[in-house]
Design brief:
- This protein is 72% helix and 1% strand.
- It is mainly α and 274 residues long.
- 24% of the residues are buried.
- About 2% of the residues have low confidence.
Length: 274
C-alpha cells in the first residue's frame, strides 16, 4: 500500500522522469537516464524559482538588518515584550516578513525530498525488476518501459556509490563527492551578505555574543562536509541530482543577488591576477 506522499509527489515525478527518458531514448541520445535526471532536476528548479527568489530576497534583507537587530537586543535586554515589538517594527519599516523565508522553504522542502525519493527508488532497481516496478507507477501505457534502461552515465553506474567504486576506479572517483561539497560551499557562501561596518565599541559588545552568526559560520562548513559524506556513500544517481540542483541554484542566486558572500573573495582573486 502506497502512502500519500508517494501518490501526490513521488509517483508524478517518476512519470515525468520516464517521459523525459522515453523522449531522449527515442532520439538515440546516449546515457538517457542520467540526462533525464539532470533535466528533471532543472525543471523542478525552474518551477520553484519564484519561491527561491522570495526566500533569497527575504534572507538577504534579514542579514542586512542583523546589525540593527543586535542594537535593539542590546538596548532592550531583559524586556522581552519591548524587544519583540521593536524588532517587528524594524522589519515592518523595511518591508521584511521574517516568516516568508521559512514558509517558502517549507513549501520547497517536500518537493525536493520527493525528487530525492524518486531517484532513491529507481537507481537501486536491478535490470530484472526495472520494467515491472516502474511500469506499475506509469499512468499511460504509451510511456511504459519495454526494455530495462541503461543505468550507466559516462561509464559509471548510477546505482553504485563512490565508496563501492573506490577500489575499482581509484581516487579519481572521490572527485564526485568532493565536487558536491565544493558546489554546496559556494552556494552557502553566496547566501551570506557582506557584514556592515561597526565601531570598535560595538564589536566589543557583540564579541562572543552573536550566536546566530556563529551558527551560520559553522553551518557554512558543516553542511558541505555532510554532503561530501552522503555523496560518498549514496548511489551516483543521487550525487548527479544534488550537483545539478546545487549548480543551478548557484546560477539562480547569482541572478537574484549577485555573488553575495563570495564577492570579497572574488575581488581578492581578481586583484592578485592583475
Amino acid at each position: 500500500m502506497t502512502n500519500f506522499f508517494d501518490q501526490v509527489l513521488v509517483f508524478p515525478f517518476i512519470n515525468v522522469l520516464v517521459v523525459i527518458y522515453q523522449a531522449l531514448f527515442s532520439l538515440h541520445i546516449p546515457y538517457a537516464l542520467g540526462f533525464s535526471i539532470i533535466i528533471l532536476t532543472i525543471i523542478i528548479r525552474i518551477i520553484l524559482y519564484p519561491l527561491t527568489k522570495s526566500q533569497l530576497k527575504s534572507s538577504k534583507k534579514m542579514q542586512e538588518l542583523s546589525h540593527h537587530v543586535s542594537k535593539i537586543k542590546e538596548k532592550h535586554k531583559g524586556d522581552a515584550k519591548r524587544l519583540q515589538a521593536e524588532t517587528m517594527k524594524l522589519y515592518k519599516e523595511h518591508g521584511v516578513n521574517p516568516m516568508s523565508g521559512c514558509l517558502t522553504a517549507l513549501v520547497q522542502f517536500p518537493i525536493l525530498m520527493a525528487l530525492y525519493s524518486v531517484l532513491n527508488k529507481i537507481v537501486g532497481l536491478n535490470s530484472q525488476t526495472i520494467v515491472s516496478e516502474v511500469n506499475k507507477i506509469i499512468y499511460l501505457d504509451l510511456f511504459k518501459l519495454k526494455t530495462p534502461w541503461d543505468p550507466y552515465f559516462f561509464g559509471l553506474s548510477l546505482a553504485q556509490s563512490p565508496s563501492s567504486l573506490l577500489q575499482q576506479i581509484g581516487p579519481l572517483i572521490l572527485l564526485i563527492p568532493l565536487s558536491a561539497g565544493v558546489f554546496q560551499f559556494i552556494q552557502s557562501k553566496m547566501m551570506f551578505v557582506k557584514p556592515p561596518v561597526v565601531s570598535g565599541e560595538e564589536k566589543n559588545q557583540k564579541k562572543g555574543g552573536d550566536f546566530t552568526s556563529a551558527l551560520q559560520t559553522q553551518s557554512l562548513y558543516m553542511f558541505p562536509a555532510m554532503i561530501i559524506y552522503f555523496s560518498y556513500i549514496f548511489p551516483l544517481g543521487l550525487s548527479l541530482y544534488w550537483n545539478t540542483l546545487t549548480i543551478f541554484g548557484i546560477l539562480q542566486q547569482y541572478k537574484i543577488q549577485g555573488w553575495g558572500g563570495l564577492e570579497v573573495w572574488i575581488k581578492k582573486i581578481s586583484s592578485k591576477g592583475k
